[in-house]
C-alpha cells in the first residue's frame, strides 16, 4: 500500500491539521505496517501557482522552454506520479476564508491533468484516478457542517467535487470545527477528532 500524506496548514506548530493527519497516517500504519508513506508539506515546500507559460510548455520544443519553467514542469510530473501511485491520500486542509489554502490549490492544479487523471468523452468527462481512497482532515475556525453557515463551505464541497471529477468515489472526512470560538472549544474539537480517528480503525484504507 502506498500512502500519500499532504499538509497545507500555514501556521506551523499552531496548525491543527498536521497533528490530525499524522494521527490518521499512524492509525493506518498500525494496521498496515508495510505501507510506504510519501510526505509533502505544501507550505515549507510550496509549488508555484499554475501559469500560462507552464501550460504552454507541454506542447513547446524543450529547447525553447525557460529553465525555470522546465524545472516547474518536471516537479509537476513528480507530483502527479506521487498521486497516481497512491492507494490512499491523507490530506490536511484548513479552511481559510471559506475555502482552502492556495498552496493546496496549486497542488490540485498539478494532479488535475487531462489524459492522466480525467478525460473528456462523448458522454461527458470521465475520472481516471479510480480505486483510491482520499481522507480529508478538515479544520475550521467556526461551524460549517450544518445550519445557515453550511452555504459558506467552499472547502469540503470543492474537494468532494474535484476528487469526484478525477474518479475518486471513496472519500472520508475527519473534521475539527469551532477551533477559534474559545480555548475550550478548540480542545474539545481536537479531542473529538482524535477520538474519531482512533475509532475508525485504519479507515478501511485502499490497498
UniProtKB/TrEMBL annotation:
Cofactor binding: number and manner: Binds 1 FMN per subunit.
Family note: Belongs to the azoreductase type 1 family.
EC number(s) reported in the record: 1.6.5.-, 1.7.1.17
InterPro entries per the UniProt record, alphabetical: Flavodoxin_fold (IPR003680), Flavoprotein-like_sf (IPR029039), FMN-dep_NADH:Q_OxRdtase_AzoR1 (IPR050104), NADH:quinone_OxRdtase_FMN_depd (IPR023048)
Gene3D superfamilies: 3.40.50.360
Short name of any one Pfam family annotated for the protein: Flavodoxin_2
Keyword Flavoprotein listed: yes
Residues the record lists as binding FMN: 15-17, 95-98, 139-142
Organism: Shinella oryzae
Protein name per its UniProtKB record: FMN dependent NADH:quinone oxidoreductase
Keywords, comma-separated and alphabetical: Flavoprotein, FMN, NAD, Oxidoreductase
Reactions mediated catalytically: N,N-dimethyl-1,4-phenylenediamine + anthranilate + 2 NAD(+) = 2-(4-dimethylaminophenyl)diazenylbenzoate + 2 NADH + 2 H(+); 2 a quinone + NADH + H(+) = 2 a 1,4-benzosemiquinone + NAD(+)
Name of the coding gene: azoR
Keyword Glycosyltransferase assigned: no
Cofactor(s) required for function per UniProt: FMN
Record's subunit section: Homodimer.
Biological function: Also exhibits azoreductase activity. Catalyzes the reductive cleavage of the azo bond in aromatic azo compounds to the corresponding amines.
Domain Flavodoxin-like fold: 1-199
Amino acid at each position: 500500500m502506498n500512502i500519500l500524506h499532504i499538509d497545507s496548514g500555514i501556521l506551523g506548530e499552531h496548525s491543527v491539521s498536521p497533528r490530525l493527519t499524522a494521527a490518521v497516517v499512524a492509525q493506518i500504519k498500525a494496521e498496515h505496517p508495510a505501507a510506504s508513506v510519501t510526505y509533502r508539506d505544501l507550505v515549507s515546500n510550496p509549488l508555484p501557482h499554475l501559469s500560462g507559460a507552464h501550460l504552454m510548455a507541454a506542447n513547446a520544443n524543450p529547447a525553447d522552454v525557460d529553465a525555470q519553467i522546465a524545472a516547474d514542469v518536471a516537479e509537476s510530473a513528480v507530483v502527479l506520479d506521487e498521486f497516481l501511485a497512491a492507494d490512499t491520500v491523507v490530506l490536511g486542509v484548513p479552511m481559510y476564508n471559506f475555502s482552502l489554502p492556495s498552496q493546496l490549490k496549486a497542488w490540485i492544479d498539478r494532479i488535475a491533468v487531462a489524459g492522466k487523471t480525467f478525460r473528456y468523452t462523448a458522454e461527458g468527462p470521465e475520472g481516471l484516478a479510480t480505486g483510491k481512497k482520499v481522507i480529508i482532515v478538515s479544520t475550521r475556525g467556526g461551524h460549517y457542517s450544518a445550519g445557515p453557515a453550511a452555504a459558506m463551505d467552499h472547502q469540503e464541497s470543492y474537494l468532494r467535487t474535484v476528487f469526484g471529477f478525477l474518479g475518486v468515489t471513496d472519500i472520508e472526512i475527519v473534521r475539527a470545527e469551532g477551533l477559534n470560538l474559545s480555548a475550550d472549544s478548540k480542545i474539545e474539537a481536537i479531542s473529538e477528532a482524535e477520538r474519531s480517528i482512533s475509532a475508525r480503525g485504519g479507515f478501511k484504507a485502499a490497498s
